[in-house]
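User: Could you check the structure of this?
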Amino acid sequence: YLNIPCVLSKPCRVTVQVLDSSGRLVNTLLSSTVRCGPVSVAWDGRNASGKFVSAGTYEYRISAIDLNGLRLTPVTGTITVN
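Assistant: Sure, the predicted structure tokens are below.
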């Protein structure tokens, strides 16, 4: 498992997605309203169908919109699956 952490300064609608090297959606790990403070989302290396992904490089993207509709700057990172 890989834990993807972030810290929210205010309550937001948060989406955490994993994308393949072509930018295609592999899995949505979280899509809900989250309170402020630390958040950690786990990814078990599976796609949206529940199958393990192939070895390679993936990207995670954390997007957030506050409760007033303001989009916060997305956070991205790289995941390597062996």
